[in-house]
Design brief:
- 45% of the residues lie in helices and 19% in strands.
- The chain contains 4 helices and 4 strands.
- The protein has a 4-stranded mixed β-sheet with strand order 2-1-3-4, sandwiched between helices.
- Helix 2 runs antiparallel to helix 3.
- The radius of gyration is 16 Å and the shape is elongated.
């Protein structure tokens, strides 16, 4: 299934930049606002998910995604969860063409050339 709310992609990418080295996930509910849920706040979210239609299935997939990304930084699970039980769960990372990333990579390349 394609990402259901394309208008939120820029907001999600900005939030990912801010929290890229924190463990957790990006959550979008009926409010259609992207929020960061830290790893320490996941348990209450999972309990709430399990009370919703198809929520147990979503919670299990989300747990697996969180375990895969824990401590790795960069990519985060993104959960779009609507009140009717429909959801989209995927992984999103910081954009490779972001200007800050290009600057950081260029800086690392210059450091590498100087050390050689």
């Amino acid at each position: 299934m394609a990402f259901p709310l394309p208008s939120l992609l820029p907001t999600i990418e900005e939030l990912l930049q801010e929290v890229q080295w924190l463990d957790g996930l990006i959550l979008i509910t009926d409010s259609q606002r992207a929020t960061f849920v830290s790893f320490s706040q996941v348990d209450p979210l999972l309990r709430r998910l399990r009370t919703k239609p198809r929520g147990h299935h979503v919670a299990e997939k989300l747990c697996m995604s969180l375990l895969e990304t824990h401590g790795k930084g960069g990519a985060k699970p993104v959960l779009v969860f609507q009140g009717d039980g429909s959801f989209w769960l995927g992984m999103m990372g910081t954009s490779a063409d972001h200007p800050h990333r290009r600057h950081a990579v260029a800086h690392l390349n210059r450091c590498f050339e100087l050390s050689g």
